[in-house]
Amino acid sequence: MKFNPFIAFFVFVLLPQQKFVQVVADLDSDKQALLEFANGVPHVKKLNWNLATPVCTSWVGITCNTNRTDVIAVRLPGVGLYGTIPSNTIGKLKALKVLSLRSNNINGSLPSDIPSIPSLQCLFLQHNNLSSKFPVTFSPMLRIVDFSYNSISGTIPNVDLPSVKVLNFSYNNLSGSIPSSFKRFPSSFIGNPLLCGSEPLKPCSESVVSPSPSPLTDFPSPKTGSQNQHATSKNKLGVGSIIAIVVGGLAFVFLLLAVIFVSCLKRKHSGSNGMLKSKISQNDKPNDFGSGVQEAEKNKLFFFEGCSYNFDLEDLLKASAEVLGKGSYGTTYKAALEEGTQVVVKRLKEVAVGKKEFEQQMEVVNRVGRHPNVVPLRAYYYSKDEKLLVYNYMPAGSLFALLHGNRTSDRTPLDWDTRMKIALGTARGIANIHTEGGGKFTHGNIKSSNVLLSDELEACVSDAGLTPLMNAPLTTSRIVGYRAPEVIETRKITQKSDVYSFGVLLLEMLTAKAPLQPSGQDDVVDLPRWVRSVVREEWTAEVFDVELLRFQTFQEEMVQMLQIALTCVAKTPDMRPTMDEAIRMIEDVRQSESKNRTSSEAESNIQTP
Ligand SMILES: *[C@@H]1O[C@H](CO)[C@@H](O)[C@H](O)[C@H]1NC(C)=O
Ligand SMILES: *[C@@H]1O[C@H](CO)[C@@H](O)[C@H](O)[C@H]1NC(C)=O
Ligand SMILES: *[C@@H]1O[C@H](CO)[C@@H](O)[C@H](O)[C@H]1NC(C)=O
Ligand SMILES: *[C@@H]1O[C@H](CO)[C@@H](O)[C@H](O)[C@H]1NC(C)=O
Ligand SMILES: *[C@@H]1O[C@H](CO)[C@@H](O)[C@H](O)[C@H]1NC(C)=O
Fold it and tell me: Spans of biased composition, class Basic and acidic residues (predicted)?
């Protein structure tokens, strides 16, 4: 067959281009819709949106999908938007998942094409002045809807919103009774004086349950009533009224001065009281920070899918921050954003890779983090001078703090069941990192300060996937106590060397001895060697944490766990189990024990008549 140049032209030139044109067209229409929005809604802060710059990488507040074919999030909290949003602007972003326009001054009606965007999952509009009716059409994907602190009025239609997890219409002007479909949102309608129904609102009296067709004729209208009063008082302005007005005026001026004074104090205070921005700049050479801010305007926080948070980089930098610790990879802060959100910000130092590689690694870290025993990565920021990672805040702190924290006071010791649960959770977290990362992925920095705990004391492994980003990670003394012997020679971290570190962690949980000294001195306890020497002398009971001595009933389990730990810290990598095998061993300990317990309970039941 003869080579046909026309077909070749079609296949190699036209086809790919057509796809490309399609993609560009999608993004272009999104861009157009956003520009129409920016033109239609006045804003106090200037947005850097313009036709000439790429929407996905340089526009403030915009996030695209990874393929950069669609805008999936618009986050413009507190940028001073005012006026009314026109329809056919934001509503045209057909792949939008997250919209946050909270804490602005938007008024009028919300166009109905916004809550009904089919892909929309999260809608944050709290703290505006919207005066729409309750929206009728909601996207079937919506999970979070926040309209609190607006002026939404009218009655609530009985619509079913099965996918909605969080709904908030508090502090609006809704009226009537709460329909049955909304009874499952108990504290979502507080601060609506005209609304009645389920707790904590007042119960509905007869007259409100069946709204009368024309309330204006049934009830005296408050508006006209007050106008009448106003009119009569204007006609007969007495000396008393004049004095009242003067006194009132003076009081008002005084109040205004007081408010200004207090807000000045407050501003001064928050300045010195550790905004993340100032904390960061303190560590920098002072002149570096200015360029960092400009960078921040150009680049922005990259959010992964999901929308538990609605803030932007500026919010993050303004948040009040507290140093949680200085780790091998940089300093970690707890940042408290307005409206009560807390996140952990990790500021990486000595990142050895370029932007592209960094982004790819972040994708892996995000994938690995979608497991209940790994701390999820929520967002990151990359610029030449600054690399920030944003994680969930884990309220119960680290395993290190729980094991070695203040032991003298009346703290509750970590009981055996909790230790078992943490051991198993940590093992599952590491195993997930080993499998999800494509089989070759390692953690490289397993230690008790990298095991964080949720409110329910569920273990979550943190710092996953950061080792490959770093300069010479193995030279730091901070991981020495957990480091497998072969790593010292080969300088290579493997899954089996992670298993070794996990073994040391188990020994630490059993003995409450820290392989590393808290102050970060080089003074290292070789925990495996110490445990082996004690066990060899048949003093097995001596190795255990004194706080565990109260749990005599679990002695068998403790000895079994000690054996598992010792196989994990075998000197040769081949002798160590894989993480999956370690999980199975730990599960077996629990299962055999619970069988024993139930059988002994059964026995005692038989014995006592
Ligand atoms: C991105 O593109 C790849 C291939 O081009 C495709 O397989 C994938 O589904 C796309 N992802 C999204 C989120 O569009
Ligand atoms: C919205 O606010 C603007 C000024 O901020 C005002 O001109 C306009 O009348 C308001 N619209 C409504 C519907 O309240
Ligand atoms: C909200 O709008 C109403 C008029 O529609 C206005 O009286 C009120 O001052 C506005 N509130 C704020 C906080 O701007
Ligand atoms: C609240 O809604 C009622 C009617 O439902 C209206 O009469 C009243 O003026 C509204 N209040 C405010 C502050 O908008
Ligand atoms: C809604 O917001 C109000 C005010 O911020 C808060 O008190 C209330 O708990 C919230 N309700 C829900 C269900 O989140």
Answer: 588-600
Residues 603 and 460 reside in one and the same domain:
yes
Residues 303 and 382 in one domain: yes
Residue 573: partners with Cβ closer than 8 Å, 6 or more residues away:
484, 486, 494, 496, 497, 500
Ligand 1: residue whose CA is nearest its atom 7: 67
Q: CATH number, domain at 174? A: 3.80.10.10
Angle at 421 between CA 420 and CA 424, to 5 degrees: 85
The finding on whether 173 has its CB within 6 A of some atom of ligand 3 is: no
Q: How many Å separate Cα 147 from the centre of its chain?
A: 20
Pull the structure tokens for residue 318.
Answer: 């303004």
Do both 171 and 105 map to the same domain? yes
Q: Is residue 2 a part of any domain in this protein?
A: no
pLDDT of residue 139: 92
Mean pLDDT of the residues in the chain: 77
Question: In CATH, what number is assigned to the domain containing residue 403?
Answer: 1.10.510.10
Looking up tokens 């970590």 gives 414
Nearest CA to ligand 2 atom 2: 83
What ligand is nearest to the CA atom of residue 151?
A: 4
Q: What are phi and psi of 28, to 5 degrees?
A: -65, -40
What band does 109 get if pLDDT is binned at 50, 70 and 90? very high
Q: What is the spatial distance between Cα 349 and Cα 387, in angstroms, rounded to a whole number?
A: 8
Tokens of 64: 């695209």
> Do 62 and 192 share a domain, yes or no?
yes
Q: Which residues carry a binding-site annotation?
A: 355
Pocket perturbation via mutation, ligand 3, pick of 104, 107, 149, 172 by most ligand atoms within 8 A of CB: 107
pLDDT over 90 at 117, yes or no: yes
Q: Which has the higher per-residue pLDDT, 520 or 46?
A: 46
CA distances from residue 246 to 145, 242, 258 in whole angstroms, order as listed: 46, 6, 18
Model-wide pTM > 0.90:
no
* Coil vs helix vs strand at 115: coil
